[in-house]
């Protein structure tokens, strides 16, 4: 064959490959087939107990309804992999992921609106959970299936050794943090303990995530709604500045936050608490099985966060079921969503001792105490109900979380930084983000 | 070798090849002669085809896609929207971009020269044929084969910022410290640089060792006879003999330095207080963490252009030098 023919053949092959890369939006209006198996993606470690829990929930659903479900567990780069499937125009049918992901997925057209008329027990879903699944225009795009909130874990043996009571105010919290840092609570004769474990790295915006528990308790806010879905930056309000100053003093003045916190994400911070290097940790209930095993359930206790200058508001989060666009089995999607929030589905999701699909139930007819006799779970459920607050459903919450994490990290890392100047700079960045997302208050 | 080549009948005729007389009449005959001499012209292409197809599919098409994406608002499901140079503006105007560029340059220069200097020193120490040296060389090469995630975790432990941290214990013996290392904005960049040098130096060492074998031993003898000291022999014989090795290593290390990501991402993720933010971590945050793939693509194209320009400059300098 002549060289030119080979070049032609190569060009043709390249064109074919390129064409295949830019194929049309197949599957957007897919032909419906109620027998088609549902592909379910869940954000949990593959091969771990979380995947097993999801499989058991899927099996119970299959048994109850006859629809088939194939579970895929993905943890690392979950969102990136979802984007890859979006590029192929072949999304999974159902996704179980963080409630805060709704804005990103909705703005990219990945979600199908949930018809609440097809959700049998929709009236029994906890109000704030239901609210977390609404987009900015008030339509339901996510259905909560699991809730969680932050509570305070305390080294009980340390507290008792130093004859302290669980803190009920920020002053008591700071005093306990200082005592754990300076009074050798582990009794090894060394100055090697800290009051509070905190993941203050900017990775995935952890510093912002953690700080929100303190910011909201002080009455501060990252961004404030001004009405009609418009927001304005709020990190320079007196309450926000006060919260930042107080939290910063814990690290800079009292030195009560674990050394190296500003470069730590969650795994090393978890290790700090379980290795007896820090005496308090503000975290959700999902770590209880881990700490029970590594540290011992008798070594620590769970109490609600102490009241801040305003109240005891803490970060509430959870998982939602998202019905993905382009599915060829919308009836199956609706049936799964309905089952997941039903009493039966919620109870099934709470079974086991480690890999819960449901942390705190979102169905008001399910009493956590009846299924999990451990009173610590009741504490978490009470905190969620009384003080839990979700991040707002704006088009894309991630940039807000990222820039606020950068600022918190900066202020905790450099104790000489001017707090007011840094927060003014942060407000300017937040204003730009709100403007870019089309939700800035004029 | 192809079957045609193995066939004695197909072997080229001995003696000089017939001279090409004219373009028109000699074309077919010329092809036949070439075919007989070197096999079919497409044989090497056939062998290269798997690699070329894989490169086309996994490298070049994505690269072209990335350039296209850099001018679009990427919405994989809804369809991309053309936004002109908005993504480039976003990257260039993003908070801390200039700082990230500066940090990248500082880190690339520091790691490149640090790793080359240390690698060269190690190569001089470990040059020779002894079996024991082979073992030592393998041991010294270990940091290169250890996964970066493990390296980062090891250094995180060594950099523990309190007095009982490993490196701080050593500093204490010298009456210094404790240092915050990666947790202090003043020392974080240097700490990451040291980790990069520790990991990159053994790789450079192996390249230098390979280069050292090509340096003429006679020159050392002549220099010694002329009374050159050990340092003078290194300076006037070894270094000039390794000139090409230096330039190749420089290009490789500089590109590696500009693309630095993993150690920064794992050790500090750009913090504390943005003191170690490099272009790649910034692109990652803008593109993948915030799901703005077009913006990320624009950043990647800018970085690619910078790397390309650097490579071309070095090549031009080499060419001028060789003239």
TrEMBL record, chain A:
Q: Which domain of life is it from?
A: Bacteria
Q: What SUPFAM superfamilies would the database entry show?
A: Periplasmic binding protein-like II (SSF53850)
Which one GO biological process term can you cite for this protein?
Answer: maltose transport
Q: Which residues form a coiled coil?
A: none
What GO cellular component entries does it have?
Answer: ATP-binding cassette (ABC) transporter complex, substrate-binding subunit-containing
Q: Does the keyword Iron-sulfur apply?
A: no
Q: Name one GO molecular function term.
A: maltose binding
UniProt entry keywords in alphabetical sequence: Signal, Transport
Q: Which InterPro entries match?
A: SBP (IPR006059)
Q: Does the keyword Lipid metabolism apply?
A: no
Which is a Pfam family this sequence falls into? SBP_bac_8
Q: Which first-to-last residue range defines the signal peptide?
A: 1-26
Q: What does the sequence similarity comment in the record state about its family?
A: Belongs to the bacterial solute-binding protein 1 family.
Q: Sorted alphabetically, which PANTHER family does this protein's record hold?
A: MALTOSE-BINDING PERIPLASMIC PROTEIN, MALTOSE_MALTODEXTRIN-BINDING PERIPLASMIC PROTEIN
What's the name of the protein? Answer: Sugar-binding protein
UniProtKB/TrEMBL annotation, chain B:
Q: Does the keyword Membrane apply?
A: yes
**Species:** Embleya scabrispora
Please give the start and end residues of each transmembrane region: 41-61, 100-126, 138-159, 165-183, 240-258, 293-317
Question: How does the record say this protein sits in the membrane?
Answer: Multi-pass membrane protein
- Which CDD domains does this entry report, sorted A to Z? TM_PBP2 (cd06261)
Does the keyword field hold DNA damage? no
Alphabetically, which GO biological process terms does the record hold?
transmembrane transport
Its keywords, alphabetically, are: Cell membrane, Membrane, Transmembrane, Transmembrane helix, Transport
State a single Pfam family of this protein: BPD_transp_1
Family per similarity comment? Belongs to the binding-protein-dependent transport system permease family.
Against PROSITE patterns, the record matches this protein to: ABC_TM1
Segments carrying the region annotation (Disordered) are 1-32
What's the protein name? Sugar ABC transporter permease
Where does it reside? Answer: Cell membrane
Q: Which InterPro entries match?
A: ABC_transporter_permease, MetI-like, MetI-like_sf
């Amino acid at each position: 064959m002549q060289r030119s023919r080979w070049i032609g053949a190569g060009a043709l092959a390249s064109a074919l490959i390129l064409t295949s890369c830019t194929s049309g939006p197949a599957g957007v209006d897919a032909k419906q087939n109620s027998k088609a198996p549902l592909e379910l993606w869940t954000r949990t470690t593959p091969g771990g107990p979380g995947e097993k829990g999801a499989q058991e929930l899927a099996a119970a659903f299959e048994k109850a309804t006859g629809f088939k479900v194939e579970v895929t567990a993905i943890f690392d780069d979950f969102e990136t992999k979802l984007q890859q499937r979006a590029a192929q125009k072949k999304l999974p049918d159902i996704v179980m992921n963080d409630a805060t992901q709704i804005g990103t997925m909705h703005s990219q057209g990945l979600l199908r609106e949930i018809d609440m008329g097809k959700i049998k027990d929709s009236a029994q879903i906890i109000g704030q959970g239901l609210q977390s699944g609404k987009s900015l225009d008030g339509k339901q795009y996510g259905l909560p299936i699991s809730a969680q909130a932050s509570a305070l874990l305390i080294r009980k043996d340390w507290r008792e050794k130093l004859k302290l009571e669980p803190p009920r105010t920020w002053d008591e919290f700071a005093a306990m943090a200082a005592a754990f840092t300076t009074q050798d609570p582990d009794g090894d004769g060394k100055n090697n303990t800290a009051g509070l474990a905190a993941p203050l790295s900017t990775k995935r915006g952890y510093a912002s995530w953690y700080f929100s528990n303190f910011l909201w308790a002080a009455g501060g806010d990252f961004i404030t709604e001004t009405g009609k879905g418009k927001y304005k930056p709020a990190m320079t309000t007196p309450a926000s500045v006060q919260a930042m100053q107080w939290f910063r003093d814990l690290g800079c003045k009292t030195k009560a936050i674990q050394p190296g916190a500003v470069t730590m994400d969650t795994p090393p911070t978890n290790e700090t608490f379980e290795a007896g290097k820090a005496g308090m940790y503000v975290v959700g209930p999902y770590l209880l099985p881990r700490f029970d095993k590594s540290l011992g359930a008798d070594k620590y206790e769970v109490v609600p966060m102490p009241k801040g200058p305003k109240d005891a508001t803490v970060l509430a989060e959870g998982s939602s079921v998202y019905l993905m666009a382009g599915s060829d089995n919308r009836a199956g999607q609706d049936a799964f969503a309905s089952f997941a929030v039903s009493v039966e589905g919620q109870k099934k999701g709470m079974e086991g001792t480690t890999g819960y699909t449901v942390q705190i139930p979102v169905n008001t007819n399910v009493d956590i105490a009846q299924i999990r006799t451990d009173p610590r779970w009741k504490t978490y459920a009470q905190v969620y109900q009384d003080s839990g607050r979700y991040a707002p459903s704006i088009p894309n919450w991630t940039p807000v979380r990222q820039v606020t994490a950068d600022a918190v990290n900066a202020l905790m890392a450099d104790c000489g930084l001017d707090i007011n100047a840094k927060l003014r700079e942060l407000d300017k960045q937040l204003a730009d983000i709100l403007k870019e997302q089309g939700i800035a208050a004029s | 070798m192809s079957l045609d080549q193995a066939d004695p009948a197909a072997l080229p005729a001995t003696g000089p090849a017939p001279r090409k007389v004219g373009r028109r009449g000699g074309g077919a005959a010329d092809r036949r002669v070439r075919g007989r001499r070197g096999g079919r012209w497409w044989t090497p292409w056939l062998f290269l085809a798997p690699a070329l197809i894989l490169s086309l599919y996994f490298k070049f098409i994505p690269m072209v896609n990335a350039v296209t994406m850099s001018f679009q608002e990427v919405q994989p499901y809804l369809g991309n929207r053309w936004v002109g140079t908005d993504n480039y503006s976003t990257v260039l105007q993003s908070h801390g971009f200039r700082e990230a560029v500066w940090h990248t340059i500082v880190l690339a220069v520091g790691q490149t020269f640090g790793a080359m200097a240390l690698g060269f020193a190690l190569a001089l120490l470990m040059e020779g044929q002894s079996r024991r040296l082979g073992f030592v060389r393998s041991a010294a090469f270990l940091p290169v084969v250890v996964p970066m995630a493990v390296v980062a975790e090891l250094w995180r432990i060594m950099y523990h910022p309190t007095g009982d941290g490993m490196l701080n214990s050593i500093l204490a013996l010298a009456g210094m410290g404790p240092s915050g290392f990666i947790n202090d904005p003043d020392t974080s960049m240097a700490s990451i640089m040291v980790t990069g040098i520790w990991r990159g130096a053994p790789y450079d060492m192996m390249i230098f060792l390979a280069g050292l074998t090509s340096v003429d031993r006679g020159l050392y003898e002549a220099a010694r006879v002329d009374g050159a000291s050990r340092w003078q022999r290194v300076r006037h014989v070894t270094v000039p003999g390794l000139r090409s090795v230096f330039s190749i290593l420089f290009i490789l290390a500089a590109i590696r330095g500009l693309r630095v990501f993993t150690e920064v991402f794992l050790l500090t993720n750009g913090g504390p207080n943005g003191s170690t933010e490099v272009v790649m971590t910034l692109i990652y945050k803008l593109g993948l963490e915030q799901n703005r793939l077009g913006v990320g693509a624009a950043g990647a194209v800018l970085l690619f252009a910078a790397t390309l320009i650097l490579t071309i400059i070095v090549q031009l300098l080499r060419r001028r030098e060789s003239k």
